[in-house]
Specification:
binds adenosine monophosphate; 310 residues; 14 helices; binds magnesium ion
């Protein structure tokens, strides 16, 4: 797989290279049998973002039509698992699932919402798109609005951008002093540990498009009137900062890929693959959580007898 190659090609800036060799608390995972999608895409020790091939399709050997078909085939399963998770919460379970989606402009975050998460009962999902903080949000610490958006028991929460913007755009533009943003990696890890400890499992995904692919997608936004509503003049300015963003991602991915909440980098030049891969990550995790239909303690015989009497 593109990003599983050795570290010797790493020729990043000093800090990115340093971050790449930071000892993560993630243990080396012994993969027995077929590697899972998480095994293939997870950010482990020695990860180098620049080595990921955005065109690759790890864990899927077919092409676009097979990928699209697989996505449609498994779409209902996400909803079925969420229903079990909800049912479990009716019997007192506090478990929930949080999907964090990050990526550069045009990386396909919206498509994940429509094609992967869209299959779940809207009542069971809560999607939050994080924009530049409002006046009110700025009065609080950067995790305040994140805490408020965490999923309730039995539901799936989806973050379209997240607290990671506070070490990405904020770092690239120095929106707060370095002394402040540099502390956030540890704060994020502590926060996520707390979230996981309270029963909310976290899946973190970076949709990774290449700079060339982004250019093609932005160009299409200009050329197609039905895409003009997405046009944002600032996107071109942000594009100039591509290397800075990649460095910020490299550092965030390695510093904050923990055993309890690892990062995954999904090659996203092929939209159909990115959607398939995120669906797989979700389904594998829900299956591992294995929510059960709860015993609600209903005396079925007695209830049926009441019907007869009614
Ligand atoms: P979009 O997702 O394209 O609608 O854009 C949302 C914008 O909000 C992006 O340009 C983000 O970089 C920006 N944004 C999100 N979170 C933050 C944050 N914590 N601080 C500053 N800008 C942010
Ligand atoms: Mg945008």
């Amino acid at each position: 797989m593109g990003h599983k190659t050795s570290r010797k090609h790493a020729k990043k800036t000093t800090e990115a290279a340093e971050a790449a060799v930071l000892p993560l608390d993630a243990e080396e995972v012994q993969v027995v049998g077929e590697p899972s999608m998480s095994d293939l895409l997870r950010v482990d020790k020695g990860f180098v973002l620049a080595e990921v091939d955005c065109e690759s399709t790890p864990g899927f050997s077919g092409g676009k039509s097979a990928g699209t078909e697989a996505l449609a085939l498994h779409a209902p399963e996400v909803g079925e698992w969420q229903e079990r998770l909800f049912a479990e919460s009716r019997a007192g379970s506090k478990r929930a699932l949080l999907l964090v989606i990050q990526g550069m402009d045009t990386s396909g975050k919206g498509g994940i919402m429509r094609h992967v998460v869209g299959a779940v009962d809207p009542e069971g999902v809560r999607t939050t798109a994080f924009k530049a903080p409002t006046e009110q949000e700025r009065q609080h610490d950067f995790l305040w609005r994140i805490r408020a958006a965490l999923p309730h028991a039995g539901t799936v929460g989806v973050f379209d951008r997240s607290h990671y913007e506070d070490v990405l755009v904020v770092r690239v533009h120095e929106l707060v002093p370095q002394a402040e943003w540099s502390k956030r990696y540890a704060q994020i890890n502590a926060f996520e540990r707390q979230v996981v400890g309270s029963g909310t499992e976290i899946i973190k995904v970076m949709l990774h498009v290449s700079a060339d692919e982004q250019k093609a997608r932005l160009t299409q936004r200009l050329e197609r009137p039905d895409k003009h509503y997405k046009w944002n003049r600032a996107d071109i300015d942000e594009r100039q900062l591509w290397p800075d963003y990649m460095e910020a991602y490299q550092v965030a991915l390695t510093k904050c890929s923990t055993k309890g909440a690892p990062w995954h980098v999904v090659p996203a030049n092929k939209k159909w693959y990115a959607r398939y891969a995120v669906q797989r990550l979700l389904l594998d995790r829900l299956e591992a959580m294995a929510p059960e239909w709860p015993d609600m303690g209903i005396d079925v015989e007695a209830e049926l007898a009441r019907f007869d009497a009614s």
